[in-house]
Specification:
By secondary structure, this protein is an alpha/beta fold. About 50% of the residues lie in helices and about 15% in strands. Strand 5 and strand 6 form a beta hairpin. The protein binds adenosine monophosphate.
């Protein structure tokens, strides 16, 4: 099971990826999470990526390819994984295909999640993230049991730096400029394995639709 989850920021990729990992036992690989961890530990990768991530720009392809290749080469990524937030450019999609071809593998399915812009802006502006374990919440749509605290680990919930309005605007433009073309790339190459999913509904509804597709693989 080798899955890619594509879609604009705020469409629910992180939430759905976590659900898929829990339900199907796939390894959830989020390039955004890897970069945020590197930034918070102030590693060389974090120092390189911080300016891009916090302002809502894409980290250069070469850097993202290096971390993805490294992550996919570990033993726990031998067969069942889900890429969330990668590929985000056609060059990354091509490089992923080459990486997989070298391993004699291919993608099982590409899930393309989309939603109306108003819904996306609302989700991003109310999003809260646990500083400790990364669990995602929304002040209205997915509130924690205790305000401002993570249900899983009790730590404080924060607003991601790139969920602030200016960075959100830039991320949406970047998606249209660079990432939307990745959908066309897959449409041209693996049309039958590209699934378009309406992400406007509640997380449970969207999750059921995704589970139907993945469960049928
Ligand atoms: P995400 O958590 O997927 O929304 O990613 C947060 C930020 O990390 C993005 O806005 C980019 O700055 C950076 N990032 C994550 N994945 C990629 C990628 N595949 N290519 C370039 N930048 C990325």
């Amino acid at each position: 099971m080798r899955l890619v989850l594509l879609g604009p920021p705020g469409v629910g990729k992180g939430t759905q990826a976590a659900r898929l990992a829990a339900r199907f036992g796939v390894l959830h690989i989020s390039t955004g999470d890897i970069l945020r961890e590197a930034i918070s530990s102030d590693s060389p990768l974090g120092r390189e990526a911080r300016g891009y991530v916090e302002s809502g720009r894409l980290v250069p392809d070469a850097t993202v390819l290096r971390i993805t290749e490294e992550r996919l080469s570990r033993p726990d990524a031998a067969s069942r994984w889900l890429l969330d937030g990668f590929p985000r450019t056609v060059a990354q999609a091509e490089a992923l295909d080459e990486m997989l071809a070298r391993r004699d593998e291919g993608l099982s399915t590409v899930l393309w999640l989309h939603a109306a812009t108003e819904a996306i802006v609302e989700r991003l502006s109310g999003r809260r993230t646990c500083a400790e374990c990364g669990t995602l919440y929304h002040v209205r749509l997915l509130p924690p049991r205790r305000e401002g605290r993570c249900d899983r680990c009790g730590e404080a919930l924060l607003v991601r730096e790139d969920d602030r309005p200016e960075a959100v605007r830039r991320r949406l433009v970047t998606y249209e400029d660079a990432t939307a073309a990745v959908v066309d790339y897959y449409r041209g190459r693996i049309r039958k394995r590209l699934h378009e999913i309406d992400g406007n509904g509640a997380p449970e509804e969207v999750g059921e639709e995704i589970a139907r597709i993945v469960g049928g693989l």
